[in-house]
Write a structure and sequence with these properties.
Elements lengths: L2 H4 L6 E5 L2 E5 L4 E2 L10 E2 L3 H46 L2 H11 L8 E2 L2 H7 L8 E4 L3 E7 L5 E7 L7 H13 L8 E5 L6 E5 L6 H6 L9 H21 L3 E3 L8 E3 L5 E3 L6 E3 L6 E2 L11 H6 L1 E2 L1 H17 L15 H10 L3 H4 L2 H6 L2 H14 L10 H17 L9 H23 L3 H15 L1
Parallel strand pairs: 5-9
Antiparallel strand pairs: 1-2, 3-4, 6-7, 7-8, 8-10, 9-10, 11-14, 12-13, 15-16
Helix pairs in contact: 3-5, 7-9, 7-14, 9-13, 10-16
């Protein structure tokens, strides 16, 4: 007999069993499930539900408050950054730069692009250490990649006197207009940072100094390449001094500021110390700035900057190219530390070919070496008025390059014994020639001694 059907003793779930039955309450209720017992009553979760509701409500409210606060914080932060960028833009002369660009280029700003701070941060991976190309007294240069995959060099200056902003902008305007194959091209700038950032073309084959001094024990530069680089550098400086819209004095010519591209084309770089010379003046009175070993002694003593100051520095670079020696080295003997003094002393003492780099001796024609050495010695004269102009130096070097191209001569033997024989042979050959030229430089040598002492200080 199915008692669950006949007597229906349960209020919940009735399960018929042999000779008996079993009552149970459905899920969500409690009791014995019998009609004559406790029956079934719903299980009340009121307190539990209320606890969960409270926790969820507090959590959601907290998240909403956090989101609102975060939104307000980032909004205020971005507004502050935007105002700061605008402030820097105005302080750094951004408005003046734009006005000048618009007026001088008739509405086109292609001559010098003005970048935003965000653009340059993305280009340099937020100025990551791995992007540093070099560091110096005036700032740090980073390798940057623009959205169109153009590789650029971004110079981040250390500081800028606010009183010099207009002068800085004037120089920037001039540099943005320089189009010369041997001058590093200024692509643009950024005024939204505490100090302006300059964006230059990227030159990928290191500096002249690296190729002369840092490539194992022997320079990678042939005599032909050295002469061509000297001519290109002289041509760039001649352009800056004589052919630019306003005369530009570089003021820091040295082998580390001459960059080389993949075909060893020379490009003059780093115009951070440069100065514009007004049309009605031939010299400027400035605080002495430059690099020891390359610094014009006349400028050092008088603070009068002229185009001949660049000529002197170029003379030191010529001496570096000829000898393979650094401009200043305390690893050398005391009388050889300052290359300009050592070089002119060697000419005076008829010992020029004893200090010429062996590769230059092996590959160069004696007449060429002598002419470049004599040009270098004239550039190194203490009195600026006795030095040639950069235009004269450039013409002389271009003439030598043309002759070399017409009559190439390369001594393929690099044997040291032959080099030493060649050195002695050429030294004898030019003893008489150098003696006559050396007498002209006596004044330069004697007058440079005080400068050498000052430089060591």
């Amino acid at each position: 007999i199915n008692e669950c059907v006949t007597s229906q003793p349960c209020v919940g779930i009735c399960t018929n069993l042999p000779g008996t039955y079993n009552c149970a309450c459905p899920e969500g209720s409690q009791g014995d499930g019998r009609k004559d017992g406790k029956g079934c009553t719903p299980i009340i979760h009121e307190k539990r539900f209320r606890s969960i509701d409270v926790v969820l409500g507090v959590s959601i409210s907290f998240l909403l408050v956090l989101l609102v606060v975060s939104w307000l914080y980032w909004g205020l932060r971005e507004r502050k950054i935007s105002r700061q960028r605008e402030k820097f833009f105005l302080e750094n002369g951004g408005r003046l730069m734009l006005q000048r660009l618009l007026s001088e280029h008739e509405g086109s700003v292609e001559a010098a692009r003005i970048f935003t701070d965000e653009e340059l941060k993305k280009a340099t991976d937020h100025y990551h250490e791995s992007r540093i190309l070099g560091q110096g007294g005036q700032g740090t240069v980073y390798r940057g990649i623009l959205p169109d995959n153009t590789v650029v060099a971004i110079k981040k200056a250390k500081n800028l006197d606010r009183s010099q902003v207009e002068e800085f902008i004037n120089e920037l305007i001039i540099l943005s207009q320089i189009i010369h194959r041997n001058v590093v091209k200024l692509i643009g700038c950024c005024f939204e940072t505490e100090v302006p950032l300059l964006v230059y073309e990227f030159v990928n084959n290191s500096t002249l100094a690296d190729h002369i001094h840092k490539c194992a024990h022997e320079s990678t530069l042939s005599w032909r390449a050295r002469l061509r680089i000297a001519g290109e550098t002289a041509g760039a400086l001649s352009y800056l001094h004589s052919d630019a819209s306003a005369q530009i004095l570089h003021r820091d010519i040295k082998s580390t500021n001459i960059l080389l591209d993949e075909s060893f084309l020379a490009k003059v770089a780093d115009f951070g110390a440069s100065r514009l010379v007004p049309l009605d003046r031939t010299q400027l009175t400035t605080l002495v700035q430059g690099t020891l070993g390359y610094l014009d002694p006349e400028y050092f003593h008088s603070s009068q900057l002229t185009e001949k100051s660049d000529v002197y520095s170029f003379g030191v670079v010529l001496a570096e190219l000829l000898t393979g020696l650094r401009a200043l080295s305390f690893e050398r003997a005391e009388n050889e530390r300052n290359l300009s003094l050592y070089f002119t002393s060697a000419i005076k003492g008829e010992r020029l070919f004893e200090i010429i780099d062996l590769r230059v001796l092996n590959e160069g024609i004696p007449d060429e070496i002598k002419e470049v050495a004599m040009l270098a010695s004239r550039c190194l004269r203490v009195k600026g008025e006795d030095r040639p102009t950069m235009k004269e130096a450039a013409m002389e070097l271009e003439g030598l390059v043309r002759v070399m191209d017409r009559h190439p001569w390369v001594n393929q033997s690099c044997d040291l014994e032959e080099s030493e024989h060649l050195l002695g042979e050429r030294s004898s050959e030019y003893d008489g020639i150098l003696k006559s030229n050396a007498s002209r430089n006596d004044d330069s040598i004697s007058n440079q001694v005080p400068f050498e002492i000052e430089s060591r200080r």
